[in-house]
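B., you asked whether I could sanity-check this one before it goes into the benchmark set. Here's the sequence:
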Amino acid sequence: MVISLFQNWKGNKTIERIDFTDCIRLTGRMIENSVNNLPVSLTSLKLSKCSLTDDSLKILSTNFPGNLVELEIESCVDVSDSGLIDFCKRFSKIKVLNINNCEKVTKDFLFALPQLCPSIQKCHVRLCADFRFDDLMEFIKKTSKTLEVLWIAGLLSHQEVQLLINESKLVNPRLQLRW
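And here's what the prediction gave me:
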């Protein structure tokens, strides 16, 4: 069903957003077989809670003809730093990135993100186990000119959140921290 749906989209110049959230049967193999049928006008792709892997991201970044500015891969637990780094090298205009609960994503990716996607405006890192106060503060400093919203639930204690709010205001007064 998914592959035939992709085929119907080929050449479509009006579809800007596709949301496959909770399509747990959407696999890397399906993406590989159909990525060339995704519309070139697509700017937002939501693949949260799908069976996405680093290889799936590589296939997307290598074959997808469009220019994504929003990627949501929340709870794609088989995606790691290397998959995201390769993906962001191809899609450096990403402004919105949701990697909530991507357990294999570490602070190494967080530190690379500002250079890979210098226009990042919204970043969701809720429940990414490796991120700590100092890591988040460093990320906020590196993105102070562009970052507008940072979701950080499940990462810090209440006291650390309050400290991060206070310190981040000195670096980026317009930043909204959400937890």
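One thing to flag: The chain has a mean pLDDT of 90. Otherwise nothing jumped out at me.
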